[in-house]
Amino acid sequence: MSDLPTSTKVDPLDAGRAAALDRDGYLLLRGAVPDAWRDALRAAFDSGVGAGDQWAAPRGAGWRHALVDLDPAVQQTCRLPLLLAAAAQMLGGPFFLAQVEGRAPLQGGGHQPLHRDGAGTKAVAALVFLDDYGPDNGATRLVPRHLDQADFDQTLPDETLSLTIAGEAGDILVFDADLAHGATCNRSGARRRSLLLSFMPERNQATMDACRAVRNVRMDTSEVFVP
């Protein structure tokens, strides 16, 4: 880790996207990853896949997991201006990149019940898709914020309210981690590699640093992004 934290200014999201993100709790950034970067990201994913014992804590069955957080192309992608602008819109204050890892549902695997990841931490999640994705190969489904009237502490919305997101390699899905969401089953077996990112408010840095080892975080997380 660096002894000299850096601060990076983040430009605001454009008004149209900001309004949609505030209303829905998610935003799909189509084609956000430059085409020239995508092969390097896929190579980083594939080289980061290893045996289950490379992880300090067990990973879910039915998935392929990849350690990618030290790869330069991955780090560059995590800092795409449009992605940072969307995170800043949701977080509203200084934040940092807490984690990034690779995930891909295996054939017949990947289905998750609707759930919320935020647990009151005001976290932002992002999925960088490295392959085309849709309902046949484990795409993520979610319930837009304006349709979610459930009690966040006690219940989850009706599954019928969820939307399954579909698109192409290079898209980025960014969303409030408290939004009800979950992957679908990869019925076709087609590859659906993605990078899963987590951004958190700066005030959470010490807490997250204390559990770096169990989360397999190796990268420097000291950089702070300022809206």
Describe this structure in words.
The structure is a single chain. By secondary structure, the chain is α+β, with helices and mostly antiparallel strands. The chain has helices at 15-24, 35-48, 72-78, 81-91, 205-209, and strands at residues 7-9, 26-29, 63-66, 95-105, 124-129, 140-142, 163-164, 172-176, 181-183, 194-201, 224-226. The strands form three sheets. A six-stranded antiparallel β-sheet has the order 2-8-5-10-4-3. A three-stranded antiparallel β-sheet has the order 7-6-9, with no helix packed on it. A two-stranded parallel sheet has the order 1-11. The chain starts with 6 loop residues before the first strand and ends with a strand.
Lay out the secondary structure.
Blueprint: E1 7-9, H1 15-24, E2 26-29, H2 35-48, E3 63-66, H3 72-78, H4 81-91, E4 95-105, E5 124-129, E6 140-142, E7 163-164, E8 172-176, E9 181-183, E10 194-201, H5 205-209, E11 224-226
Parallel strand pairs: 1-11
Antiparallel strand pairs: 2-8, 3-4, 4-10, 5-8, 5-10, 6-7, 6-9
Total helical segments:
5
Q: What's the CATH architecture?
A: Sandwich
Strand content is 15-25%
**What is the CATH T-level topology?**
Jelly Rolls
Strand arrangement within the widest β-sheet reads 2-8-5-10-4-3
- Average per-residue pLDDT, rounded, comes to 93
